[in-house]
User: Which sequence fits this backbone?
């Protein structure tokens, strides 16, 4: 089976890029023929090249809307698909998703669109919501099927009349399993807390630091992994709150699994999320998770079972839950064990891959291919 993956950006590594990279690599290992088509080259194209996965660059496929570049990108994509001759096209990210579906309709190619979160969510401005919702509504009928990576995204799209329920399916993100060296020991004292997230407004590091300001009498440390525009503000807050001896800024780390293995609890304090891979990676490591009630987080984190879900932006609730975990190593141990079990049962890459391949086959059969 020859599958063309289309994604807007290869000059960044986010959830959608990792998803495409891992799927294409896994297809190649199974004897299929994946090829990835994207815009500007960068970390994604470098990693695909290292893995031996063919890559095509479209010079005019850019992230922002552009009156001249977008029609050119459509023509480039259409020519690339004609040249490749895929059995199936798998489109990812908003702009690539729309251009790919238009190109596939013109070439009578089967196409599946995977939505990695919606741009018409409640945190967007009214104008953004109207524009993106309208665009997705118009593009949806061009899809053979639409995949959402969490049920919360699927429900939102159905509620907004973006697509019919029978045209969509939820296939949760999955992450590859790792060796025993990457398993954490949550029972260790004093606990090391960790948050893996870009320093940007939606990640809301401020709420986490405000929560920890009131826990200085307890014994803990915090590792912050990531970079971004709000890092300086976070550093200023750490100094202002007297936490400089407790908090480490680790920057970008290529060894996140090893960082998680040295931690005792994982935290996310975002104001907006879809279905974060960082939580799945923490569960894979066997860590208890504290995260906000946004997006599809409650589909992986269950309060009292493998962690706690707290209200968005509520530093007091976050403080109280963290205090429980900091003071109770046996609770961390039990929740960490439950996290690992949930990961194995629901969120492995192999499970996601099997369900994705099954959908590919169903679409091809329905098209008589």
Assistant:
């Amino acid at each position: 089976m020859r599958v063309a993956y289309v994604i807007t950006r290869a000059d960044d590594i986010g959830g959608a890029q990792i998803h495409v990279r891992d799927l294409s690599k896994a297809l190649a290992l199974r004897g299929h023929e994946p090829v990835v088509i994207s815009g500007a080259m960068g970390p994604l194209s470098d990693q695909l090249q290292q893995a031996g996965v063919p890559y095509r660059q479209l010079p005019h496929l850019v992230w922002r809307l552009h009156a001249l570049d977008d029609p050119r990108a459509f023509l480039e994509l259409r020519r690339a698909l004609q040249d490749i001759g895929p059995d199936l096209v798998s489109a990812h990210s908003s702009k690539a998703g729309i251009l790919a579906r238009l190109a596939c309709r013109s070439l009578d190619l089967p196409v599946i669109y995977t939505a990695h979160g919606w741009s018409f969510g409640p945190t967007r401005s009214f104008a953004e919501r109207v524009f993106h919702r309208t665009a997705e509504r118009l593009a949806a009928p061009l899809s053979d099927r639409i995949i959402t990576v969490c049920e919360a995204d699927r429900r939102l799209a159905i509620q907004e009349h973006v697509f019919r329920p029978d045209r969509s399916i939820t296939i949760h993100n999955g992450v590859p399993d790792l060796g025993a060296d990457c398993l954490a020991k949550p029972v260790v004292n004093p606990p090391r807390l960790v948050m893996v997230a870009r320093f940007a407004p939606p990640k809301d590091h401020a709420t986490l630091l405000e929560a920890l300001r009131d826990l200085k009498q307890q014994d803990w440390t915090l590792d912050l992994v990531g970079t971004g525009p709000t890092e300086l503000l976070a550093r200023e807050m750490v100094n202002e709150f007297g936490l400089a001896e407790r908090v480490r800024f680790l920057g970008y780390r290529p060894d996140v699994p090893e960082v998680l293995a040295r931690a005792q609890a994982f935290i996310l304090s975002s104001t907006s999320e879809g279905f974060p891979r960082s939580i799945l990676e923490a569960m894979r490591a066997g860590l208890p998770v504290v995260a906000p009630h946004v997006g599809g987080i409650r589909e992986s984190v269950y309060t009292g079972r493998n962690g706690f879900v707290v209200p968005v932006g509520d530093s007091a609730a976050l403080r109280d839950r963290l205090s429980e975990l900091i003071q109770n190593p046996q609770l961390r141990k039990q929740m960490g064990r439950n996290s690992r079990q949930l990961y194995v049962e629901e969120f492995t890459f192999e499970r996601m891959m099997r369900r994705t391949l099954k959908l590919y086959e169903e679409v091809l059969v329905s098209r008589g291919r």
Q: What stands out?
A: Residues 169 and 197 are 28 Å apart (CA to CA). The domain at 180-346 is CATH 3.40.50.2000 (Rossmann fold). The first strand starts at residue 2 and ends at 7.
